[in-house]
């Protein structure tokens, strides 16, 4: 079994409109949400083999905060995540080394939402209903798959958890 975790960056700041999109930091609300998720994942004792992070400042800052609650192996900045669509992100997942059993992708919308909804063929019905609504900033989805990473395709995943920042208040 393979486990894919999809994390959308937490709420970013728009205080400086002159900043390039990739350079926007987290807003105070985003930092609080990321810390709350770190605490939640720490209680769950989450351990992952590989973390792929978009190079955008807000995704890196989100992972930096969330990582306090995660036992993570290799962490890698993956430039192609920044502007990937869901098919491109799916190819990144499918090309993951089979030694990796658990993968975290830290990215952006609409890609996080599109990928996760397309992969979730079944699973926790309440979580699926929430996921269908939206994938808010700071949300964290967990899907299980049988087989290898190359076997991951649309509809083959089981959504086992979907956590939004407001669920952690």
Task: Describe the 3D structure.
By secondary structure, the protein is α/β, with parallel strands linked by helices. 32% of the residues lie in helices and 26% in strands. The chain has helices at 28-44, 57-66, 86-94, 111-119, 125-133; strands at 2-8, 47-53, 71-77, 102-107, 120-123, 140-145, 157-163. A seven-stranded mixed β-sheet has the order 3-2-4-1-6-7-5. The longest helix has 17 residues, at 28-44.
What is shown here, in short?
By secondary structure, this protein is of the alpha/beta class.
Record field, number of beta strands: 7
Low-confidence stretches: none
Distance between the termini: 31 Å
The main sheet comes to:
7 strands, mixed
Average of the residue pLDDT scores: 96
N-to-C SSE string, H for helix and E for strand? EHEHEHEHEHEE
Please, how many helices?
5
Class from secondary-structure proportions: alpha/beta
Percent in helix: 25-40%
Rg from alpha-carbon coordinates: 15 Å
Q: Tell me the overall shape.
A: globular
- Which band does the percent of strand residues land in? 25-35%
Biggest sheet, spatial arrangement of strands: 3-2-4-1-6-7-5
Note the topology.
Layout lengths: L1 E7 L19 H17 L2 E7 L3 H10 L4 E7 L8 H9 L7 E6 L3 H9 E4 L1 H9 L6 E6 L11 E7 L6
């Amino acid at each position: 079994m393979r486990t894919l975790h999809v994390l959308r960056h937490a709420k970013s700041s728009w205080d400086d409109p002159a900043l390039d999109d990739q350079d926007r930091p987290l807003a105070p609300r985003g930092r609080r949400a990321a810390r709350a998720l770190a605490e939640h994942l720490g209680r769950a004792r989450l351990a992952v083999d590989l973390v792929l992070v978009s190079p955008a400042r807000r995704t890196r800052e989100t992972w930096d905060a969330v990582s306090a609650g995660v036992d993570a192996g290799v962490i890698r900045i993956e430039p192609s995540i920044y502007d990937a669509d869901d098919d491109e992100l799916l190819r990144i997942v499918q090309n993951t080394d089979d030694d990796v059993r658990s993968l975290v992708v830290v990215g952006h919308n609409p890609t996080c939402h599109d990928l996760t909804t397309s992969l979730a063929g079944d699973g926790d019905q309440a979580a699926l209903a929430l996921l269908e609504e939206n994938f808010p900033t700071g949300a964290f989805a967990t899907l299980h798959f049988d087989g290898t990473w190359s076997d991951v395709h649309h509809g083959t995943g089981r959504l086992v958890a979907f956590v939004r920042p407001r669920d952690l208040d």
